[in-house]
Design goal:
Elements (H helix, E strand, L loop, with lengths): L1 H32 L3 E3 L2 E3 L9 H18 L23 E6 L4 H4 L7 H4 L8 H16 L6 E5 L2 H14 L6 E4 L16 H14 L3 E3 L2 E3 L4 H6 L29 H18 L4 E6 L3 H11 L16 E2 L4 H10 L5 H20 L30 H4 L7 H10 L32 H12 L11 H20 L5 H14 L1
Parallel strand pairs: 3-8, 4-5, 4-8
Antiparallel strand pairs: 1-2, 3-9, 6-7
Length: 505
């Protein structure tokens, strides 16, 4: 403000000096030709008029400058530097147009993606339909004589493509294309990331709408009429979510945030504060990657309850011009989509299904149908037959290493920290009808023993031994070295030129 007043003063200074000089000349002339008399302690001329002095001249000149500055005051308003306050009951320093980028490839595949790290991939670039949507939006802007001086865009690939198309078609300088790395990111949906877009987005709408509902005397009252919502007083029996602090999606472990609307408002406030501080008098086009972010910014600018945010949601490629508090209130009273309530009803069912699926464990317990190995060693046989061979005493030793290992694991006691736990002595399953059976008589083990003795197991042979592999690698390396050495690097020409030069000298 001080700088602008100083510039105004510099512009008017020549006029002030000229006016003061002219008045000084007139004063000198009047002193020479008129006789002055003193009356009542004041110097007056013969007509009784007060004498002009330098103080009077400068005072009049300064008043003229201040009057000139007051007339031009609206054009030199001070910037609203600092943190932007919502709702915006005052005039902003810039004109803002909100736009949603065209449809992306992920959206065309019906996938909801909100992880900022993955949105920069070309998988999220504009789809053919998205390119057509952006072209239609640019044609509409040019027909309405909208020519943004600044384009601020999200780092999502579809937003980058949209901003580049606008810059090329509408002649926006590359220095006026400004990426935003954080504050324009979409709201993170946690573990709902990469789920079907059509169903999950409706579920999020329903969650935001229902958890922003006021409950009074066990009757649900949804705030549809904006004017009445400001006048009504409710006894809140359950948490209302007008400030967007509820309705949090489930957490995830892949880095995708699970945010509430209130947390996203913090980023959008930072975005507007930076723009209002950095620019003044510009026409700024904000290109968002999703439809909720510009709707949320519109809601807080107008002071609307955040549970109504999805009534302002943007469609892919949609642009809204000169977004202010009054324009948002006019839109929500006249232009809300008639399908909004249908999507909320559908979203309630989808939200219930999502939350029910989250309660189901990933790994289910399956009833055992095969015998489990014993966990306590059976008593040894008392047979003292001298003709008994080690094979007849413990038949699994002769069948091979695999059976010995399996038997060893079968006879091992389980480790436990509870000293009061009793050892299980019998073979059994979760099925009570299964009869106990010794390990040596298990049909699976007997069949495996026979197959090992007969040799029916197919053991695949190695296709190549290590020597063949090493020999092949050496041949490949030699071939690559020969190709490198046979390359024409210009040495022969250089050497020939050097010989010619030496011979000439």
């Amino acid at each position: 403000m001080i700088l602008r007043l100083y510039l105004v003063f510099l512009v008017a200074l020549p006029e002030v000096i000229s006016f003061a000089s002219h008045q000084e000349k007139k004063l000198m002339q009047r002193r020479e030709v008129q006789l002055f008399t003193i009356k009542d302690g004041h110097r007056q001329d013969s007509k009784g008029n007060n004498e002009l002095s330098r103080r009077n001249v400068l005072d009049s000149a300064m008043k003229s400058v201040l009057t000139f500055g007051a007339v031009l005051g609206p054009a030199f308003q001070a910037a609203n530097a600092g943190l932007v306050q919502f709702p915006c009951d005052y005039d902003l320093m810039n004109t803002y147009h909100f736009m949603r980028a065209g449809e992306s490839l992920l959206e065309s595949q019906n996938l909801l993606s909100t992880n900022p790290l993955f949105l920069t991939n070309r998988e999220d670039a504009l789809s053919p339909l998205g390119i057509e949507q952006v072209n239609n939006a640019m044609n509409d802007m040019m027909m309405k004589d909208i020519n943004p001086s600044v384009v601020k865009y999200s780092l999502a690939a579809k937003s980058i493509d949209t901003a580049n198309m606008i810059a090329n078609e509408m002649q926006v300088g590359r220095n006026r294309l400004i990426p935003e790395y954080t504050f324009m990111d979409p709201r993170g949906v946690g573990s709902w990331n990469m789920l079907p877009l059509s169903s999950t987005e409706d579920a999020i709408w329903a969650m935001d709408n229902d958890e922003g509902t006021l409950i009074h005397n066990d009757f649900v009252v949804t705030l549809i009429n904006i004017k009445d919502s400001y006048k009504a007083l409710f006894l809140i029996w359950e948490t209302a979510g007008e400030e967007g602090k509820d309705a949090r999606p489930p957490a995830n472990d892949d880095g995708t945030a699970n945010e509430t609307l209130s947390e996203q408002v913090t980023r959008l406030r930072q975005l507007m504060s930076i723009l209002e501080t950095q620019f003044s008098g510009d026409e700024i086009l904000l290109v968002f990657g999703d439809g909720t972010s510009p709707a949320l910014l519109s809601s807080v600018m107008a002071g609307l309850p955040l549970n109504l945010v999805h009534q302002l949601d943007f469609q892919p490629g949609e642009v809204r011009y000169d977004v202010t508090k009054d324009s948002v209130l006019h839109y929500i009273e006249n232009d809300v989509s008639p399908y909004h309530n249908e999507r909320i009803d559908h979203g309630r069912k989808e939200l219930k299904d999502l939350r029910e699926k989250a309660k189901v464990p990933i790994v289910e317990d399956i009833e055992a149908t095969r015998p489990v190995a014993v966990v306590k060693e059976r008593p040894k046989s008392t047979n003292t037959n001298s003709g008994a061979t080690p094979e007849s005493t413990f038949p699994f030793i002769a069948t091979g290493t695999a059976i010995a290992v399996s038997t060893s694991l079968a006879t091992q006691k389980p480790d436990t920290d509870d000293e009061n736990t009793e050892d299980i002595e019998t073979i059994g399953t979760t099925n009570d009808n299964f009869e106990s059976m010794p390990v040596s008589e298990s049909p699976e083990l007997i069949d495996m023993e026979k197959r090992i003795e007969i040799g029916t197991f197919d053991i695949p042979e190695m296709k190549r031994n290590e020597e063949e592999i090493m020999k092949e690698q050496i041949q490949i390396a030699e071939k690559a070295m020969n190709e490198y050495l046979n390359q024409d690097d210009g040495f022969e020409d250089w050497l020939s030129q050097m010989k010619t030069t030496i011979e000439e000298e």
